Amino acid sequence: MDTGSLPGGGLYSSSAVVSRIIGQALESPLKIVYLSDFYQWLKTNALPIKRPSELMAGDIIISPSSRYIQGHVGIIGEKISEKPDFSIYSNSLDSCLFLKNWTLSRWREYFEKDLKLDVFYFRVRKTFSQQNPMEYEKKPMSSMPGLSPFLSLWNRALPSSSQFKPTTGQVP
Fold first, then answer.
1. Considering just the CA atoms, what is the radius of gyration of the chain in Å?
2. Which residues of 79-98 are buried (b: 16+ CB within 10 A; e: fewer)?
3. Is the peptide bond prior to 145 cis by the omega test (within 30 degrees of 0)?
4. Nearest of 28, 2, 27 to residue 17 by alpha carbon
5. 42-77 per-position pLDDT tens digit
6. HEC readout, the chain
7. Could you tell me which residues are beta bridge partners of residue 111?
8. Which of 50, 76, 77, 145 is most buried, by CB atoms within 10 Å?
9. Domain definitions of the chain by residue range
10. Is the CATH code 3.30.450 the one for domain 3-132+142-154?
């Protein structure tokens, strides 16, 4: 996604871009600009994922900002190793693009270890926004459409993982 073509000329926060993508997948307008508001929305409208081993493509990763340090949010991509490690798509203000620019291991090292921010994972389901969390947990996971099909369609137009540079996290 070229965030430079969006209103504001690409100066979109990571939460504004990820919430816009979720809104498209849910077929319901959603644009949450502030990371703290998006984190609150996820806590209310998504299923928390406790362990990285439970992650799948389309899940959301978020490191909420602290009082002095800016956090970030992204969408989990394909699994890249058995650790588990995944690619992560997020907004880059430098390039004004939404790209595969992180890995789970690099995200955790940077946000969790270096910046001392928490890392949370959430699963957003289309049916979840229409019911309360208790009803959601009773439904089998396989019967609920999530962001994964949307991500796989969108992923076809993205650079391959062979173009991903783990040291910089950027795609050429």
1. 15
2. ebeeeebbbbbbbbeeebbb
3. no
4. 2
5. 999 999 999 999 999 999 999 999 999 999 999 999
6. CEHHHCCCCCCCCHHHHHHHHHHHHHCCCCCCCCHHHHHHHHHHHCEEECCHHHCCCCCEEEECCCCCCCCEEEEEEEEEECCCEEEEEEEECCCCEEEEEEEHHHHHHHHHHHCCCCCEEEECECCHHHCCHHHHHHCCHHHCCECHHHHHHHHCCCCCHHHCECCCCECC
7. none
8. 76
9. 3-132+142-154
10. no
Percentage of the chain beyond pLDDT 70 is 66
Q: How far apart are CA 6 and CA 1, in angstroms?
A: 9
Its pTM stands at 0.71
Nearest alpha carbon to residue 102 among 33, 25, 169, 172: 169
How far apart (Å, rounded) are the C-alpha atoms in residues 9 and 2? 10
* Tokens (6 digits) for 33: 């600009």
- Identify the CA nearest to 124 among candidates 52, 44, 37, 53: 44
- The residue with tokens 């595969």 is 100
Instruction: Extract the tokens encoding 65.
Output: 């900002």
Question: Of 58, 57, 69, 8, which Cα lies nearest the Cα of 33?
Answer: 8
